[in-house]
Amino acid sequence: MTNKTILYFIFLLMGLWITISSSVARPSLPKHEVRAAWVTAAYGLDWPDTRAVSEATLVRQQEELTDILDKLQEANFNTVLFQTRMRGDLVYPSSIEPFSYPLAGKTGRDPGYDPLAFAIEECHKRGMECHAWIVAIPLGNRKHVANMGAQSVTRKRPAICVQYKNEWFLNPGHPATKEYLMEIVREVITRYDIDGVHFDYLRYPERSEKKFPDAREFRAYGKEKTEAEWRRENLTAIVRHLYHETKKIKPWVKVSTSPVGKHSDTSLCSSKGWNAFHTVYQDVDRWLAEGIHDQVYPMLYFRGNNFYPFVLDWLERSRGRQIVPGLGIYFLDPREGNWELSDIQRQLGFLREHHTAGAGFYRVRYLMDNTQGVYDLVRENFYRAPALQPPMTWLDSIPPGKPEQLEVSFLEEGKVELKWTPSMDNDSIHPPYYIVYGSGSDPVDTSNPEHILTQRIRSAEYTYIPVLPWERKYVFAVSATDRYGNESEAVFSTGNYPGTKAETGGNGSE
Fold first, then answer.
1. Distance CA 347, CA 343 (A)
2. Which residues lie below 8 Å from residue 413, measured CB to CB, with a gap of 6+?
3. What residues of the chain score a pLDDT lower than 70?
4. What are the helix (H) ranges across 198-320?
5. Neighbours of 19 (CB within 10 A)
6. Is the pTM of this model over 0.85?
7. Which residues have a Cβ under 8 Å from the Cβ of 459 and sit 6 or more positions away?
């Protein structure tokens, strides 16, 4: 029996064990975990369904987005990867590139509001981070580019654009490409309270090899490198520039990419000729080694032996940065693939067991449609309680000061008003957020994520309203967290509580 055969059976048995154990008992819940979903605006795939061409349709378009965010919040997601740049077009007003056509039915047409500002505000209301998902290199086909007319980057900056197989691309080999992409990123992070910038397709076209039209740039800038080495260095230079320039402006903004799901062949498993390093020239291992990434969302849209060993390979390469595997839940749709819900269940169990920083779901439409019950699986099992963002200690490891003087007032109909003395942080310009915990037993166990009532509160007060009378909380705690995810010590409520023994189960336990 070969090593590959042995490895295959190991992962097969591991997947079977995860499925059985998950069906017998619900998995334990981590307090910190990235729970992300990609919201695709390109072609209106996930959003919007309605074009904003009147006041009524504008409102409906916004409601479509808030409906998505409501369902994500109900399932305790905490990260939205909101598509901000598609193929040289945007979802916010800009002098650099035009509005995307799905917003108002025509490229460049103003939908009557700022969708990116709206998305960020609505995410933050729900305690979720909003990351600007930016498609970096592709610019679309001829028809798409023609529809943009003079607003297209191919017309404004022709020197950095190339045509390949009837598609237009930014040229990674041109030194000005990284500057152009940074113009867009700078606009996003200076104008908006964004939590992250997430780069997709920051790679060469697949199978391009020697056919990609960058020979002139290679002769000018390749020096003594091979073409493959030069192309990898081009992408690394772009990533390096975007990362460092972002951190100069807002160091807490997370920088991430979604590379091809397999970095390269492992010692026992072949990537079958489809990997980040050789096929599309993404040297993500170097990006992590240089520290020019905060998170990596590898597109692990595979099953079995094409999934489990490559998760472990990414973890080995992480250098302490956050690995958030992307799961291809679209394959649950019979029109897309032949996956079963148990495939996703096994993958989520594997990621938990091996302590990845979390998971991303591609795409949110399949969560909203509850395809094969995937939304129910996540909400009722894996994400049945909230989770905080994993801290970025490589950027800042100092938590804010502890909040003080938590005052609790029990009001009518089960409402509880909480007020506390604000916390101080080492970042004097940006005050911390607050996390509120609640329980039926004293003191609150703040290590248990099931006690998190809300997070990302900006003001030093909160009104708690129980959803159901028998779920009412009587004891509370409040902690502060900075934009890097560092949490302070908590201040706990003290004193007498209005609940009777009957109301609290006799001993105050839930």
1. 6
2. none
3. 1-27, 208, 496, 499-510
4. 215-221, 227-249, 276-279, 284-290, 308-317
5. 15
6. yes
7. none
